[in-house]
Amino acid sequence: MSEIKNTIVVRDSTDIIIDAVKSSENPNGLSKTRLYLDVDGTLVAMEFDPNYMSSPDGAWGSVYRTDFCHWINSIYSIIDELCEVIVLTNFSKESELSAKEKWLADNLKCKYKLILNKEGITKSLFVRGKNDILVDDTLRNLIEWDKAGGTQYAYQYVTCEKGRRSLLETIIALTKKS
After folding, report:
1. Which of 4, 37, 38, 153 is the most buried (most CB within 10 A)?
2. Cα 57 to Cα 47: distance, rounded to the nearest angstrom
3. What is the pTM of this model?
4. Calpha distance 52→50 (Å, rounded)
5. DSSP string spanning 122-176?
6. Which stretches does DSSP call E strand in 38-112?
7. pLDDT (tens digit, 9 = 90+) per residue, 72-103?
8. In angstroms, what CA-CA distances link 12 with 113, 122, 145?
9. What is the pLDDT of residue 37?
10. Residue 41 CB partners (closer than 8 Å, separation 6+)
11. What is the DSSP letter of 43?
């Protein structure tokens, strides 16, 4: 495992160190809810470039990207107060690491930690309990997260006003119970 600034790169499931993702505390001494956000398909839409397969690196940077962050950016000030935001995204090639870091720095307004998780390592390894919420577009990730005891939201649900309100109500309720 390597750590760059506020970024953790997990290349092997044995790299996961619980201390690296422990919750921070808010001024009232309550444990903040941890809001884990997926990138591909959740914060950004991915459309493959027709030349993708022939590109030298076949990396994340060689795709067309459309900003989906608007749903989280519309509530970022509330999220910053109530949550520890952790962007939890998979990577398949080392060349994706800097491309994802740059895209997030340019587009995501809230404060966040970044965990770049090697493809094939289940995201559910990061669940500590109900206070861990995953927003993801992949059903497998959501099911595994739920089975591990976390709270999950499908990306498609939180893009509408009702879904964002539900997510915020869950965050508030979990923060109060801590």
Report:
1. 37
2. 17
3. 0.79
4. 5
5. -GGGG--STTEEEEES-HHHHHHHHHTT-EEEEHHHHTSHHHHHHHHHHHHHHHH
6. 44-48, 63-67, 83-91
7. 888 888 888 889 999 999 988 887 888 888 88
8. 19, 10, 19
9. 95
10. 68, 136, 137, 138, 155
11. T
